[in-house]
Write a structure and sequence with these properties.
Order of helices and strands: EHHEEEHHEEEHHEEEEHHHH
Number of helices: 10
CATH superfamily of the largest domain: Transferase(Phosphotransferase) domain 1
Number of strands: 11
Distance between the termini: 48 Å
CATH class of the largest domain: Mainly Alpha
CATH topology of the largest domain: Transferase(Phosphotransferase), domain 1
Strand order of the largest sheet: 1-5-6-4-3-2
Length: about 280
Protein backbone atom coordinates (compact mmCIF):
# COMPACT_ATOMS: atom_id res chain seq x y z
CA UNK A 1 0.00 0.00 0.00
CA UNK A 2 1.48 3.33 -1.05
CA UNK A 3 2.04 6.09 1.48
CA UNK A 4 0.65 9.56 0.83
CA UNK A 5 3.15 12.31 0.19
CA UNK A 6 3.66 14.69 3.11
CA UNK A 7 4.31 18.42 3.16
CA UNK A 8 4.63 20.99 5.93
CA UNK A 9 5.50 24.64 5.31
CA UNK A 10 5.80 27.37 7.92
CA UNK A 11 6.86 30.95 7.34
CA UNK A 12 8.82 32.24 5.57
CA UNK A 13 8.62 29.30 3.14
CA UNK A 14 4.83 29.13 3.02
CA UNK A 15 4.70 32.58 1.45
CA UNK A 16 8.03 32.35 -0.39
CA UNK A 17 7.06 29.17 -2.25
CA UNK A 18 3.39 29.91 -2.86
CA UNK A 19 2.38 28.40 -6.22
CA UNK A 20 5.71 26.55 -6.61
CA UNK A 21 6.76 22.92 -6.41
CA UNK A 22 8.30 22.96 -2.91
CA UNK A 23 10.67 20.10 -3.71
CA UNK A 24 12.15 22.00 -6.66
CA UNK A 25 12.20 25.19 -4.60
CA UNK A 26 14.08 23.48 -1.77
CA UNK A 27 16.59 21.95 -4.20
CA UNK A 28 17.19 25.41 -5.71
CA UNK A 29 18.17 27.05 -2.42
CA UNK A 30 21.68 28.48 -2.43
CA UNK A 31 24.12 28.87 0.41
CA UNK A 32 27.20 27.41 2.07
CA UNK A 33 27.36 23.66 1.43
CA UNK A 34 28.33 21.92 4.66
CA UNK A 35 28.13 18.31 3.52
CA UNK A 36 27.65 16.61 0.19
CA UNK A 37 27.13 12.87 0.03
CA UNK A 38 25.58 10.65 -2.58
CA UNK A 39 21.88 11.24 -2.16
CA UNK A 40 22.19 13.89 0.57
CA UNK A 41 23.18 17.54 0.70
CA UNK A 42 23.33 19.88 3.70
CA UNK A 43 23.69 23.63 3.39
CA UNK A 44 23.20 26.84 5.32
CA UNK A 45 21.18 29.58 3.68
CA UNK A 46 19.90 33.00 4.68
CA UNK A 47 16.47 34.46 3.99
CA UNK A 48 15.61 38.01 5.02
CA UNK A 49 18.69 38.10 7.23
CA UNK A 50 17.89 34.89 9.13
CA UNK A 51 19.88 31.68 8.93
CA UNK A 52 18.41 28.26 8.07
CA UNK A 53 19.85 24.77 7.65
CA UNK A 54 18.62 22.75 4.70
CA UNK A 55 18.94 18.97 4.31
CA UNK A 56 18.05 17.58 0.89
CA UNK A 57 17.63 13.85 0.35
CA UNK A 58 17.43 12.45 -3.18
CA UNK A 59 17.32 8.72 -2.46
CA UNK A 60 20.33 6.58 -1.60
CA UNK A 61 19.76 3.73 -4.08
CA UNK A 62 19.35 0.03 -3.41
CA UNK A 63 23.11 -0.53 -3.34
CA UNK A 64 23.54 1.75 -0.33
CA UNK A 65 20.53 0.24 1.43
CA UNK A 66 21.83 -3.31 0.96
CA UNK A 67 25.35 -2.30 2.06
CA UNK A 68 23.97 -0.85 5.28
CA UNK A 69 21.80 -3.86 6.00
CA UNK A 70 24.66 -6.30 5.35
CA UNK A 71 26.82 -4.42 7.88
CA UNK A 72 23.92 -4.34 10.40
CA UNK A 73 23.47 -0.59 10.07
CA UNK A 74 20.11 1.09 9.66
CA UNK A 75 20.15 3.18 6.47
CA UNK A 76 19.00 6.80 6.50
CA UNK A 77 16.38 6.91 3.75
CA UNK A 78 15.39 10.56 3.98
CA UNK A 79 14.49 13.54 6.12
CA UNK A 80 11.52 11.86 7.77
CA UNK A 81 13.53 10.38 10.64
CA UNK A 82 14.71 13.82 11.69
CA UNK A 83 11.22 15.31 11.22
CA UNK A 84 9.65 12.68 13.48
CA UNK A 85 12.42 13.01 16.07
CA UNK A 86 12.03 16.79 16.22
CA UNK A 87 8.29 16.51 16.74
CA UNK A 88 8.71 13.93 19.50
CA UNK A 89 11.47 15.85 21.31
CA UNK A 90 9.37 19.00 21.27
CA UNK A 91 6.47 17.05 22.74
CA UNK A 92 8.79 15.69 25.45
CA UNK A 93 10.08 19.14 26.40
CA UNK A 94 13.61 18.49 25.12
CA UNK A 95 15.01 21.64 23.51
CA UNK A 96 15.99 21.05 19.91
CA UNK A 97 15.74 22.63 16.48
CA UNK A 98 12.58 24.16 15.05
CA UNK A 99 11.55 22.74 11.68
CA UNK A 100 9.98 25.31 9.35
CA UNK A 101 9.63 23.09 6.28
CA UNK A 102 9.44 19.38 5.56
CA UNK A 103 8.48 17.37 2.53
CA UNK A 104 8.51 13.72 1.48
CA UNK A 105 7.26 12.10 -1.70
CA UNK A 106 7.59 8.74 -3.40
CA UNK A 107 7.10 5.08 -2.48
CA UNK A 108 10.35 3.45 -3.58
CA UNK A 109 12.64 3.38 -0.48
CA UNK A 110 15.72 3.74 -2.69
CA UNK A 111 14.39 6.82 -4.49
CA UNK A 112 12.50 8.75 -1.83
CA UNK A 113 12.72 12.50 -2.27
CA UNK A 114 12.59 14.59 0.90
CA UNK A 115 13.86 17.72 2.58
CA UNK A 116 13.83 19.40 5.97
CA UNK A 117 14.65 23.00 6.86
CA UNK A 118 15.35 24.14 10.41
CA UNK A 119 15.95 27.54 11.93
CA UNK A 120 19.55 28.29 12.82
CA UNK A 121 20.22 28.21 16.56
CA UNK A 122 22.34 31.27 17.24
CA UNK A 123 24.32 32.38 19.04
CA UNK A 124 25.37 28.95 20.25
CA UNK A 125 28.50 26.92 20.90
CA UNK A 126 28.74 23.15 20.89
CA UNK A 127 29.48 21.57 24.24
CA UNK A 128 32.55 20.00 22.64
CA UNK A 129 33.99 23.45 21.91
CA UNK A 130 32.75 24.95 25.17
CA UNK A 131 34.36 22.22 27.29
CA UNK A 132 37.57 21.87 25.29
CA UNK A 133 39.60 24.04 27.64
CA UNK A 134 38.26 22.56 30.87
CA UNK A 135 41.35 20.42 31.67
CA UNK A 136 43.51 23.57 31.81
CA UNK A 137 40.81 26.01 32.96
CA UNK A 138 38.14 24.20 34.97
CA UNK A 139 34.72 25.85 34.99
CA UNK A 140 32.93 27.06 38.08
CA UNK A 141 31.79 23.91 39.93
CA UNK A 142 28.17 25.06 40.04
CA UNK A 143 28.08 25.61 36.27
CA UNK A 144 29.66 22.23 35.56
CA UNK A 145 27.15 20.49 37.82
CA UNK A 146 24.28 22.34 36.14
CA UNK A 147 25.45 21.29 32.67
CA UNK A 148 25.84 17.67 33.75
CA UNK A 149 22.36 17.69 35.24
CA UNK A 150 20.84 19.28 32.13
CA UNK A 151 22.43 16.78 29.72
CA UNK A 152 21.30 13.91 31.97
CA UNK A 153 17.76 15.27 32.08
CA UNK A 154 17.58 15.71 28.30
CA UNK A 155 18.82 12.18 27.68
CA UNK A 156 16.48 10.70 30.28
CA UNK A 157 13.47 12.40 28.73
CA UNK A 158 14.58 11.45 25.23
CA UNK A 159 15.06 7.77 26.01
CA UNK A 160 11.95 7.48 28.19
CA UNK A 161 9.97 9.10 25.37
CA UNK A 162 11.04 6.53 22.80
CA UNK A 163 13.88 8.36 21.00
CA UNK A 164 17.49 7.28 20.64
CA UNK A 165 19.93 9.55 18.85
CA UNK A 166 22.54 7.20 17.33
CA UNK A 167 25.12 10.03 17.23
CA UNK A 168 24.91 11.17 20.84
CA UNK A 169 28.19 13.03 21.19
CA UNK A 170 28.62 16.31 23.08
CA UNK A 171 29.24 18.13 19.79
CA UNK A 172 25.51 17.67 19.13
CA UNK A 173 24.48 19.58 22.26
CA UNK A 174 24.44 23.30 21.51
CA UNK A 175 24.84 25.73 24.41
CA UNK A 176 23.02 29.01 23.91
CA UNK A 177 25.35 31.89 24.73
CA UNK A 178 23.00 34.91 24.88
CA UNK A 179 22.68 35.55 27.74
CA UNK A 180 25.95 33.97 28.88
CA UNK A 181 25.29 30.56 30.46
CA UNK A 182 25.14 30.46 34.25
CA UNK A 183 24.33 27.68 36.69
CA UNK A 184 20.90 29.15 37.40
CA UNK A 185 20.09 29.92 33.76
CA UNK A 186 21.35 27.85 30.88
CA UNK A 187 19.83 26.37 27.74
CA UNK A 188 20.97 23.41 25.68
CA UNK A 189 19.53 22.21 22.37
CA UNK A 190 20.03 18.76 20.85
CA UNK A 191 20.75 18.70 17.12
CA UNK A 192 21.69 16.41 14.21
CA UNK A 193 18.87 13.90 14.48
CA UNK A 194 18.89 12.46 10.95
CA UNK A 195 19.77 8.99 12.26
CA UNK A 196 17.45 9.06 15.29
CA UNK A 197 14.89 6.34 15.91
CA UNK A 198 11.41 7.07 17.26
CA UNK A 199 8.99 4.56 18.76
CA UNK A 200 5.94 4.47 21.04
CA UNK A 201 7.77 2.93 23.99
CA UNK A 202 10.97 3.74 25.86
CA UNK A 203 14.17 3.26 23.89
CA UNK A 204 15.35 -0.36 24.10
CA UNK A 205 18.28 -0.93 26.44
CA UNK A 206 20.62 -1.73 23.52
CA UNK A 207 20.04 1.64 21.86
CA UNK A 208 19.90 3.51 25.16
CA UNK A 209 23.29 2.10 26.11
CA UNK A 210 24.80 2.98 22.72
CA UNK A 211 23.79 6.62 23.22
CA UNK A 212 25.22 6.63 26.73
CA UNK A 213 28.47 5.06 25.50
CA UNK A 214 28.83 7.65 22.74
CA UNK A 215 28.33 10.43 25.26
CA UNK A 216 30.84 8.81 27.64
CA UNK A 217 33.46 8.53 24.90
CA UNK A 218 33.00 12.12 23.77
CA UNK A 219 33.62 13.42 27.32
CA UNK A 220 36.81 11.45 28.02
CA UNK A 221 39.14 14.40 27.30
CA UNK A 222 37.34 17.29 29.02
CA UNK A 223 38.55 16.69 32.55
CA UNK A 224 35.47 15.13 34.14
CA UNK A 225 36.13 13.40 37.45
CA UNK A 226 34.73 10.09 38.64
CA UNK A 227 32.43 12.08 40.90
CA UNK A 228 31.15 14.03 37.87
CA UNK A 229 30.28 10.79 36.06
CA UNK A 230 28.50 9.41 39.11
CA UNK A 231 26.57 12.66 39.36
CA UNK A 232 25.42 12.19 35.76
CA UNK A 233 24.27 8.59 36.42
CA UNK A 234 22.29 9.62 39.48
CA UNK A 235 20.57 12.42 37.54
CA UNK A 236 19.91 10.25 34.48
CA UNK A 237 18.38 7.30 36.35
CA UNK A 238 16.72 9.38 39.05
CA UNK A 239 17.54 6.81 41.76
CA UNK A 240 19.94 6.76 44.70
CA UNK A 241 23.48 6.20 43.50
CA UNK A 242 23.91 2.98 45.49
CA UNK A 243 20.90 1.53 43.71
CA UNK A 244 22.14 2.66 40.30
CA UNK A 245 25.57 1.12 40.83
CA UNK A 246 24.01 -2.18 41.84
CA UNK A 247 21.33 -2.42 39.15
CA UNK A 248 23.33 -0.94 36.27
CA UNK A 249 26.64 -2.75 36.81
CA UNK A 250 26.49 -4.31 33.28
CA UNK A 251 25.98 -0.84 31.78
CA UNK A 252 28.96 0.60 33.67
CA UNK A 253 31.19 -2.21 32.42
CA UNK A 254 29.91 -1.65 28.89
CA UNK A 255 30.61 2.07 29.07
CA UNK A 256 34.22 1.37 30.00
CA UNK A 257 34.72 -1.16 27.19
CA UNK A 258 32.90 0.84 24.53
CA UNK A 259 34.58 4.09 25.51
CA UNK A 260 37.98 2.45 25.08
CA UNK A 261 36.94 0.89 21.76
CA UNK A 262 35.65 4.18 20.34
CA UNK A 263 38.74 6.02 21.54
CA UNK A 264 40.99 3.48 19.80
CA UNK A 265 38.94 3.71 16.59
CA UNK A 266 39.20 7.49 16.73
CA UNK A 267 42.98 7.34 17.16
CA UNK A 268 43.36 4.97 14.21
CA UNK A 269 41.15 7.14 12.00
CA UNK A 270 42.66 10.51 12.84
CA UNK A 271 46.26 9.65 13.73
CA UNK A 272 48.86 11.41 11.53
CA UNK A 273 49.13 9.52 8.24
CA UNK A 274 46.02 7.44 8.93
CA UNK A 275 44.36 8.50 5.69
CA UNK A 276 47.49 8.75 3.59
Amino acid sequence: MSRPDELFLDEPFRALWAGQDPFRAAAALQGTVLRELEGRRTLRTEIEGRGYYVKLHRGVGWGEIIKNLVTARLPVLGAEQEWLALKRLNALGVDTMKAVAFGRRGDNPARLESFIITEELAPTLSLEDYCRGWPARPPAPALKRALIARVAEMMRRMHAGGVNHRDCYICHFLLHTDPPPAAAALRLSLIDLHRAQVRDRPAPRRWRDKDLAALHFSTLEIGLTARDRLRFLRAYFGHPLREVLREEAPLLAYLGREGARLAERYRRKFAPGANA
